[in-house]
Amino acid sequence: MKHAFIKSIPILCSYVFVSMAYGIMMEEAGFHWYYSLLISLTVYTGAFQFVLITFLSSGASILTIALTALLMNSRQTFYSLTFIEEFKKMGKRLPYMIHTMTDETYAVNLTLEAECQDEKKKEDSMFGVAFLSRCYWMFGAVLGGVLGQLIPFELEGIDFCMTALFVIIFIDQWEKRENHFPALLGIIVALISLYLFGSQRFMLVALMIVSGILLLVREENGKEVHCE
After folding, report:
1. Which of 35-49, 81-95, 213-227 has the lowest mean pLDDT?
2. What is the model's pLDDT at position 226?
3. Chain centroid, CA 91 distance in Å
4. Backbone region of residue 183 per phi and psi (left: phi > 0; alpha: psi in -120 to 50; beta: other values)
5. Distances from the Cα of 185 to the Cαs of 20, 188, 189, 214, 218, in angstroms?
6. How far apart, in whole angstroms, are the C-alpha atoms of residue 64 and residue 56?
7. Residue 33 neighbours by CB distance under 10 Å
8. What pLDDT, on a 0 to 100 scale, did the predictor assign at position 227?
9. Contact, 109 vs 98, CB < 8 A?
């Protein structure tokens, strides 16, 4: 767990502040800290939880909420597919690992994939990162809800810490890996998709294209190795 905590420190620094903002916004919308805790425990997807505040305040239908959640978080399906073999080896932990897969835990899992040669240590670290990250988010949400009752906060710009987290993780991965093709491919496809489909719809399209290309490249490399 110590190794998982060290690897999850960047997530801690971002999750606590962002989830505090979420808890404060929930409090401002009339939902106390225990609502923030319950939603974080069951939904656990940061971007949609912020959208959910508007839905709850406006009385949106369950169908609308469910479809929006599906569309906003469909990219996480691709994340889980990346580590499906590792998750299968975890036995009873499999459902929890899939449920707690987020952008940030996915990025940290990639670093664990590159660093940990011991399979047991890698699996324990992945589970530890997932568990701790969820605790960070729930703690921040509750803290934000409690503080929101007492102190008025200025929230503008607080969500930038998530962007900063991804920039740091990207740089770390770039320095550790010799093959930069996946990173460059992701940037190029994302920019083209952003231009063609707009900021609200480009993410899923870009992920599908990048995943497809990388699978084809992997298959071709596998054939070459087999032939040799």
Report:
1. 213-227
2. 44
3. 22
4. alpha
5. 34, 5, 6, 9, 14
6. 11
7. 19
8. 46
9. no
Longest pairwise C-alpha distance within the chain: 68
Calculate ∠ Cα 10-187-159, nearest 5°: 40
CA atoms within 13 A on the CB side of 68: 18
Question: 61: helix, coil or strand?
Answer: coil
- Tally the residues of the chain: 228
Question: Would you state the structure tokens that stand for residue 212, as one six-digit string?
Answer: 């497809």
Predicted confidence (pLDDT) per residue in 107-145, tens digit: 787 777 666 667 778 888 888 888 998 899 999 989 988
Q: Are 82 and 106 in contact (CB under 8 A)?
A: yes
Closest to 172 measured CA to CA, from 4, 3, 7, 2? 7
Alpha helices, H only, the chain: 2-28, 33-42, 46-58, 62-72, 75-82, 84-88, 94-99, 103-115, 119-150, 160-176, 181-197, 202-227
Query: Are the CB atoms for 33 and 27 separated by under 8 Å?
Result: yes
| Nearest partner of 52 among 74, 22, 80, judged by Cα | 22
CA dihedral 184, 185, 186, 189 (to 10 degrees): 120
pLDDT band at 158 (very low <50, low <70, confident <90, very high): low
* Tokens of residue 187, six digits: 């940037």
Highest mean pLDDT among 5-19, 103-117, 147-161: 5-19
Q: What is the pTM of this model?
A: 0.65
- Residues with Cβ within 8 Å of 114's Cβ and at least 6 positions away in sequence, in order, are 176, 177
